[in-house]
Amino acid sequence: MFKKMNEKQLLQALDGKGIDFYLEDDMFEIEGVVKSKDEKIIIEVLSAVGHILEMTGKLLEVKPKYEKLYAEKIDKSRTFEMEINRTYHLLEEPIANDFAAMKKERILEFFKKITDTLVWFDEDTNAWFIELNKINMCYSGDRKSYPSIEELFEKNQEHMSGKWQAIYYSSECEEV
After folding, report:
1. CB distance 62 to 70 below 8 Å
2. What is the pLDDT of residues 166-175, one digit of tens each?
3. Residues forming a β-bridge with 20
4. What is the pTM of this model?
């Protein structure tokens, strides 16, 4: 999706959002937030394993080129090919109405990274689902459905507190 965008379109799609991404063939996910600075796309790295953070630094500039995305250190000393895993808006201690409001904006997936819990609205069944222990948003865990987001929250209170990602884009959801 992002690879076919020019810089202006990419900035518009990413500005202000949280982002989880990978660099080159590394298996360690990096977390950051995208900001616009002098019409450049800048990622402020918020979380990464020690050796990755040391390699990337705290700021990276994103550049689309040849239908690929590149993340360049601000000092221009190193450029990495990057792959975006997820873009999101962070929700802290959400309530059912927060998820319902995001649904109105066509945000239908919510991910609690620390526990690998996914909540989503399925338009075909008109139901809300929760899947516990959904490792890396790929492998199935314990899944339940509910007719309303209020009921999902009520029946799963022990899982709903904390920080949730309201997902704008997820790589495995991209149609080929």
Report:
1. yes
2. 999 988 644 4
3. 31, 86
4. 0.83
